[in-house]
Here is the input.
Amino acid sequence: MKQPDDAPEQGKALLGLIGFPLGHSWSPAWFNEKLRAEGKGMYEYRLFPLEEITEFPGLLIKHPALAGLNVTIPYKEKIIPYLDELDGTARSIGAVNTIRLTRSNGKILTKGFNTDAPGFLMTLPRTLLQGPVLILGTGGGAKAVAFALDEKNIPYTFVSRSKTGPGIISYDDLTAAVIGSHPLIVNTTPLGMFPATGKFPPIPYHFLSTRHCLYDLIYNPEETEFLKRGKIMKTGTMSGKQMLINQAGLSYNIFFGNSPGRADLVARYEVGL
Here is the structure.
């Protein structure tokens, strides 16, 4: 019988995912299959839903067998004050999606990484690297996308519910001219994620054309309402499933000791560009 995610471990080293809610996550299936395939059956990957980020220190105490964690919405930025160290990429982005835990002299040491940026960059064909990009949202996922675009010198504009700073416009500012001049639109918000699959970012879809591509970082469902509305306008569409697989593979390497630096993350994983 499968034990609850919050049950004490029984001889297993643990990996897992923190965030809230986590009912949409495919991570346990992907990681546990990979762990079995690579002969690491002594590890188990679990979900650890935290209603508040303040629960994080208690999680580490409750599960002394934890060796690594992934981080998802809404804690990619909020987790940073709780960590001992950040690698260069995570520090530059200002968001963390991977934590490696080590123990020394009875103390837990935590180091944060970000594999979202290279995971995103790995998915983009050259044809999508030529024009300005609209990034829907301003959270941790949006920052990772912006970092990846910066590395390729691709201009972008954040879109939020309100103008909160330079380089940010509101959904009300999305005129035909703005939409027309941004061939790639990336949704980094949770709008449309399971189970609230009927939601979608409030962009003017009627301004889209065959020149556009809509990219949704959401992977469950694979075809969100955002992407469905793009298809009606004959746009290209990309789901977040491949990015999920890419960033998970990079996280897996980090859990087991491979910690590439910022330049290495960007150059090494430009697969398919």
